[in-house]
Amino acid sequence: MAKTYIFGHKSPDTDTITSSLVMANLEKALGNADAVACRLGGLNKETEYVLNYFDIEAPELIDDVEDDAQVILVDHNSPSESVDNLENAKILKVVDHHKLALETSYPLFYRAEPVGCTETVLFKLYKENGVEVTKEIASLMLSAIISDTLLLKSPTTTEDDVEAVKELAEIAEIDYESYGLEMLKAGTDLSDFSIEEILDLDAKQIDFGDVKSIVNQVNTASIPDVLEMQEDLEDGIQKIIDDEDLDIFMLLITDIVNSNSEVLVLGSQASLVEVAYDVTLEDNHALLEGVVSRKKQVVPIMTETASKL
Amino acid sequence: MAKTYIFGHKSPDTDTITSSLVMANLEKALGNADAVACRLGGLNKETEYVLNYFDIEAPELIDDVEDDAQVILVDHNSPSESVDNLENAKILKVVDHHKLALETSYPLFYRAEPVGCTETVLFKLYKENGVEVTKEIASLMLSAIISDTLLLKSPTTTEDDVEAVKELAEIAEIDYESYGLEMLKAGTDLSDFSIEEILDLDAKQIDFGDVKSIVNQVNTASIPDVLEMQEDLEDGIQKIIDDEDLDIFMLLITDIVNSNSEVLVLGSQASLVEVAYDVTLEDNHALLEGVVSRKKQVVPIMTETASKL
Question: How many CB atoms are closer than 10 A to CB B214?
């Protein structure tokens, strides 16, 4: 039988890596002996922590797949986030929780739900197919849901995610709150990164109407630790603003322990943040109480505020 | 709560109509009291037969939906086959068995499988959610699978479809073979249609490489009955060839009882059919043994044959 390559998106995170492993295990249980878990890039520090903690091998690193290869996509469906030669592959299945961005010339198995994490969908697939969720599989699923939902505190969290975490924590025999916090903290280690790398790690160009913007987000267990680098960060941000001709650059420093974000803002339209959140920037930064999701708690309100300019 | 409109594709067939009814029933069982089964066009004769047989009311006929309406798509996902203002609606769910042709700006529930019929997927959803498949629901599901798979004889039929038909026939307490044949025969009644309408009913423009083509398909229980109209059909076909500047027009007259097709062919490239199927056209027609699926048994072989010209 031909190999089936299973992989998540480029710049893999914990959901993408664990989902490829968990989906490969499901495929094997369903009789597809040649399913292989793969990845399209290096592991981040959080995912490294997870695989080390449970002593699990990382998926195989691949650059592309041969023409006519059989593939299964997890945690993404957009060709722009997938292998470069996806158009020459035969997509057998997709399991995902993102918006739709894929066209095909043939019918396929497609399973997506608007939940916080792909593993929440995979957990359902295991149950529906009567496939055993072992302690190891439960540990991987649990880690991904904690990662994607910031310990169930992100507004992307659904009831299905909460329910899954409770059931999986029992199977995995893990105190998910203390484990999850350590895992998230491991992901916040910035010590290996230069200022330029930090400002590029998770930067998204998101214009608010006519206001040209970049919103970057870093997770941390200690906002003051990150603000110690404020001077260097501002130098780096100012350079990006000049190079890209931006109106505003927002660096969300998200406290994963207390579920708040300190926002560091530069640019001619920095005061938009003060209007949007009814806060006062002091020394270019302010606390945004309860804000952890760029997608749900920053983009909509900033876009609305900019539209009233 | 806002209404949720549930509908299948334009030019509705039995799968599309029954799937909107069956999905609306599932949604209600899951707590969405405001789910409404709808349809985007008139009923064909086969579907009329089904609804009359089981004394079930047709879904509500709609032209479009209001802006920001909540909708659920069944048996299609392509905006070109859906309500005209789909881009202004919020798609909550899709249940389907076709190729992917939809992009969204938000995540949603998407469930598709490469099986013969949407109802085969819906049957699984009922089971997974522990919702009772009543005699009436089973009758609708069964009718659609028989329709889409031509009584499990089409090459689009999968093991899942066969399994579903067996289970559903028991719940519905129906001898599915005799009922199915009567249902399919009801759909072959051409008495209300003019020659022009027959030649337009299910015509698809499908070019084989550089060979400009239309392939039309009509189902029948008696090929000789259709061939009685040969002279009038040929006049109509020749007119279409002239108007559309076609190289070939194929009319597949599919015998749903014996699972064969007689093909009536006109056009300068008519001999391509003789090469492709190793047959001799006599009086412009020939029997294609075992051919019932335009998608799987005509388009690929004709395209390959044309490529060798």
Answer: 22
